[in-house]
Amino acid sequence: MAASDMRNRRHENEVPKKHKGLSVFMVIMFIMGEQAGAGMMAISRAFVDTEWYGVAILLYYSVVAGLMGILLGKSWMIVEERWPQYKSQKCGNPYPTMGEKAVAPWMRIPVSICSYFSLLGGDVVYILVISKFLQQMFPQLGMSFCVWIVLLSLILLPFTFLGSPHDFWFIAVLAISTTAVCCVLALLQMYYEFTAVTHVPAPAAVMTTDHFFLALSTFSFAYAGTPAFPSFQNDMKNRNKFSLAVIIAYIGLILMYVSMGLAGKYVYGDRVSGNVLESLSASPLRTAAQVLIIIHFAAAFQIMVNSPAQEIEEYLKLPKTIWKALDVCLNQPSLHQAEGIIIYSDSRSALDAIQNDNIEITQKIHSLLNQLERLEKNCILQWFPAHVGIEVFDADALAKYKIIKQKIRKDQICEINSERKLTKTITRLRTKHYKGMAIHPDSTRTYRACNNCPGVELTPTHIFSCPAMVAALQKIDLDPEQQLYTPKIVDIAAAVMEMHGDI
């Protein structure tokens, strides 16, 4: 079936559905859940080391980091405006994509490296902190700090296989709720200690250069999750509202940081530890706060690792969207009326992986294909170069209207067993993807000049209406567009090669 026919069938049969995605509230949960815990634990020591300047420094960092988040959101909206294909599909690596569109393709590499260092570095800190807490809470197990690190890494590994933020929104809720309750418990414990008869006044700290710059690193780390923001925005229902989510989230972070920082500074002074929970006296409140912060760090680990994981999946071209497309089709009510489905992909490596690899995602795909076979439905997984000829091309969305009600032609692109030059020409005639064609940001296309007609572009229309082709087509068929999937395509392609050369 031609791409244009399928596109028309989509508009006729597709039932509009509300776009699923994260709400503003959920994005606020993700932003706060990702960053609040580590900063909240260390901010008291930073306030002590910077004296009362710390409040002003924290506010400055909050404004700068919040502004960065807002500008990232606006930058992505510019990408969607100039490259409309990103409006209708999720991008697994939005941050490097912005670098590419703003500068050049090579900019993806430094952007990715900086993002990896920031997010994965934060994950390393989370694992270290959790391991230390667990060692302190379970000394009877006799496990060393290093053993806890390895064990914890193995426990957290399966959670890194989750999809985009929309697929694990509950983890964001868990992260911020545990942090908020932990903050309340810690503040209550500080209040009890401060009002106790045995309380010793907090000793004053002397600000030194080393401690001051160490405190600056703490303030920076408190807002180290910014590289994950484009992934959050990409999963939103309304991406234009991302700036609102950033503003509200950062107001909440400021309140949490200032309350914990000033309380720790006022109650413990120079005695406060780098992790304020370690300064609390042994009590049920402290134990409960430590358990909650462990849960928070485990949840925040998943949030921060997700953005690099999505980018790695994009580079490896894992056939994830094909699996989702099959799942969507199997749940379509109209499937029982259809002969089968066609799913297109521009990733040949993904299709090869389905055929040759035996990994978890390909096993899931084969399971879905077996379900279709039991339903006696045909399924074609078709490679399509560069999504040419289809205006909105995303496997998840496309599968929703590729359920067809007529016999499926299995020879979709080029079934001809002939020399490569001929089969290449047939493929390009069917896809209208010609050599030298350029697709511009406004979705317009330009083509190379026709060899026979000076000053005229070799467009899909002109390639057959060119005077040099008319005589040749008289011997074959006057309407070659209707013969692209018939045996006559061989003669048509040969005539095109003779008159136009390599297209």
Automatic annotation (TrEMBL):
InterPro entries found in the cross-reference section: AA_transpt_TM, RNaseH-like_sf, RNaseH_sf
Coiled-coil boundaries: 351-378
Secretion signal, residue range per the UniProt entry: none
Subcellular location as annotated: Membrane
Membrane topology summary: Multi-pass membrane protein
Domain Amino acid transporter transmembrane: 21-315
A Pfam family hit: Aa_trans
Transmembrane feature ranges: 21-46, 52-72, 109-129, 141-161, 168-192, 212-232, 244-268
Keywords: Coiled coil, Membrane, Transmembrane, Transmembrane helix
Domain of life, per lineage: Eukaryota
UniProt xrefs under PANTHER family: AMINO ACID TRANSPORTER, AMINO ACID TRANSPORTER TRANSMEMBRANE DOMAIN-CONTAINING PROTEIN
Protein name: Amino acid transporter transmembrane domain-containing protein
Lineage summary: Eukaryota, Metazoa, Ecdysozoa, Arthropoda, Chelicerata
